[in-house]
């Protein structure tokens, strides 16, 4: 479903990542972990065209784009990719002057030209899914951070995406509110949503991911099952990373 080949991105002289290759199957849950500055979030943003890579190509479903395409073709491809992907960011980015329901239904009515009646029906079902139907007429300022992030997830799901991208969705939340958001993400995983998640929540990665990809210094250092990564990482860089994370048990060393 997702194919990334030789993807590279720099900002001036700073190489964010280079020569990234990924293949992600439908219904797979892939978690990207690694130290800050390793390129995880930028990679995620390149997948749906929020950042433009300097090299390589991205294929999502039947849409593809690469850095060498002309502007018109690239815009068309990115538009197609975005209709099949939903993205949730670190910050909630809800419109403060709109109610919760209005935030959720805005994109389907504008982008997909969905009728308001249909959009409201879908929006209410999604708010019920994330446990916030009773907040449909509230404004974001009256919600907790965890509630706002759950609204942001419902908003992304309202476009009926095939793939969900999560860029550290709990990094701005305290531990109690983090649990609310992770519970919704676990539910999506159980329902078969294809997901790529950038996170520092190692418990989530261990329990939910099919595959863990470890990035450092702008490259993929290793990828494996959660069991292998957390018990017997292949590289010294990954072992060092895990030792520094609170709550990760002692790892086994390869002999």
TrEMBL record:
The keyword Nucleotide-binding applies. GO terms for cellular component: plasma membrane. Transmembrane segments: none annotated. Keywords: Amino-acid transport, ATP-binding, Cell membrane, Membrane, Nucleotide-binding, Transport. PROSITE patterns: ABC_TRANSPORTER_1, ABC_TRANSPORTER_2. Belongs to the ABC transporter superfamily. This is Amino acid ABC transporter ATP-binding protein. It comes from Paenibacillus agri.
